[in-house]
Write a structure and sequence with these properties.
single chain; mainly alpha; 4 helices
C-alpha cells in the first residue's frame, strides 16, 4: 500500500512511530559508538572495540533513510490536508 492510499490518521501514526524508532536508533548507536571509542582509547587489547565500532557506523546509514521516509510522509500529509481544504471550499 503506497502513501496516497493511506488515511491521514494512519500516516500520522506511522510518522509518530518512525520518529520514536529513529530517536531510539540514534541513541543506541551513539552510545555504542561512544563505548567503542572509549574502549579504543583506554584498553590495550583493541580487537573487540575495533570490530564493534563498525556496527554503529554501518547501521548509521539507516538514519538518513528514515528521515527521507518521514519527509515523504509529511509531504503526503500536507497534500492530503490541502486536498481536504479544497474539497471543503467547493461544497
Amino acid at each position: 500500500m503506497n502513501l496516497a492510499e493511506k488515511t491521514s490518521e494512519k500516516l500520522q501514526g506511522e510518522l509518530k512511530v518512525m520518529k520514536v524508532i529513529t530517536r531510539a536508533l540514534i541513541g543506541v548507536l551513539g552510545a555504542l559508538f561512544l563505548f567503542c571509542a572509549y574502549g579504543l582509547l583506554t584498553n590495550e587489547d583493541n580487537t573487540f572495540f575495533i570490530s564493534m565500532i563498525v556496527v554503529p557506523i554501518a547501521l548509521g546509514a539507516i538514519i538518513p533513510l528514515n528521515y527521507a521516509e518521514m519527509k515523504k510522509i509529511k509531504t503526503q500529509l500536507e497534500s492530503q490536508k490541502s486536498t481536504d481544504l479544497n474539497s471543503n471550499l467547493q461544497v
